[in-house]
Amino acid sequence: MTYKVAALYQFVPLPDFRELREPLHRLCLDLEIRGTVLLAHEGINGTVAGTDDAVDSLMAELRDGELFRKRLDNLELKFSTSAEMPFKRMKVRLKKEIVTLGDPQTDPRRRVGTYVSPAEWNRLLDEPGIVLLDTRNDFEVEMGTFEGAVDPRIKRFSEFKDFVKKELDPKQHRKVAMFCTGGIRCEKASSYMLAQGFEEVFHLKGGILKYLEDVPESESRWDGGCFVFDERVALGHGLVEQPGRAEPSDE
């Protein structure tokens, strides 16, 4: 049996996020879906897996159902497959942030960097003066990254602010391109950098996963595997499972 895996997120005001937890958890259990979904004032983030019909039903409810009252109208979604169920249980967790940067002034709903499609990404990397940043944690970078990318050597995403303050200068690094697994960390990171005075900040729309899905391997600048926070551990071109070692999930 093949399972459908959905990675999703959206920054959107959810003042009632605490009340959404139980009905969402119950819906996923009824559909026999497993995975983890994070809910916060700022939105939703998660990865879940189940049968094709079950995942499609859940996505339809998230986007058009009564539970979220059609607030998830711009849900960022990426689908892949797994030969086995990649999660042990279903969890819906309440958080302060759906991806933890730890800067209350950073709000991707107000301002983010310029989105770059996977088809245009290689062209951007060839532009002179570009600084390419990998915004992921160190153990993720070890598994694979883009050629020439700067590794911030952070243990968790909340350390990204310190890296920017110590290592980057808006007057010197005028054009920055960044990437992450599915796009969500770059929403926060690009918003933060723009607030710090960086003029041009670009980020890969849909993240590494969308790039590996859309860009032929013969044209790819990606080297290695892309770590994912489930039992599959890593994906390669075409979102095919790759062998790897599991690490704790700490965005």
Automatic annotation (TrEMBL):
Alphabetic keyword roster: Oxidoreductase, Transferase, tRNA processing
Protein name: tRNA uridine(34) hydroxylase
NCBIfam families given in the database record: PRK00142.1-4 (NF001136)
Enzyme Commission no: 1.14.-.-
Annotated transmembrane regions: none
Domain Rhodanese: residue ranges: 126-220
Family annotation (SMART domains): RHOD (SM00450)
Higher taxonomy: Bacteria, Pseudomonadati, Pseudomonadota, Alphaproteobacteria, Hyphomicrobiales
Molecular functions (GO terms): oxidoreductase activity, acting on paired donors, with incorporation or reduction of molecular oxygen; transferase activity
One biological process term in Gene Ontology: tRNA modification
InterPro entries: Rhodanese-like_dom (IPR001763), Rhodanese-like_dom_sf (IPR036873), TrhO (IPR020936), TRHO_N (IPR040503)
Keyword Transferase among record annotations: yes
Matching Pfam families: Rhodanese, UPF0176_N
Organism: Microvirga lotononidis
Function, in words: Catalyzes oxygen-dependent 5-hydroxyuridine (ho5U) modification at position 34 in tRNAs.
Catalytic activity of the protein: uridine(34) in tRNA + AH2 + O2 = 5-hydroxyuridine(34) in tRNA + A + H2O
Similarity comment: family membership: Belongs to the TrhO family.
Gene3D superfamilies, per the entry: 3.30.70.100, Rhodanese-like domain
Record CDD domains: RHOD_YceA
